Amino acid sequence: MAATTTRGNTRDQQVIAAARATRDAMTGLEVELLLQAVAWVELHPGDEVDTSVEWGMRELEIAGDGAPTIDEGAVAEFALAIGHSTDS
């Protein structure tokens, strides 16, 4: 069956424009969620890292040397709040 639309079709352009607008809105929401995650981390600091302990012997650091720490329970709480598993 032959296609009934052409690339210049106004409806095609409307659908593509709507899809792009939706993608842009989703990207903006993802950025907002990341900013909220940063705020959550700032509200729930973890213990200071003891740099005198050899790196391989320290407790797990989520983001590596120099990154801020976060309370382990706060990670799970935030994950659950946004619909993720506590393993994510």
Write structural notes for this entry:
The chain contains two helices and no strands. The mean pLDDT is 86. The chain starts with 9 loop residues before the first helix and ends in a 7-residue tail after the last helix. It is elongated and about 65 Å long. The protein is an all-alpha fold and 88 residues long. The protein has a domain at 44-88.
SSE arrangement:
Blueprint: H1 10-43, H2 72-81
Using brief descriptors, characterize the structure shown.
88 residues, mainly alpha, 2 helices, 50% helix, elongated
Which outline best applies?
Answer: elongated
- Category by helix and strand content: mainly alpha
Write the element-wise H/E pattern from the N-terminal end onward: HH
Q: How many extended strands?
A: 0
Q: Which range does the strand content fall in? A: under 5%
Main sheet specs:
none
Brief overview:
This protein is mostly helical. The protein is 50% helix and 0% strand. The chain has helices at residues 10-43, 72-81.
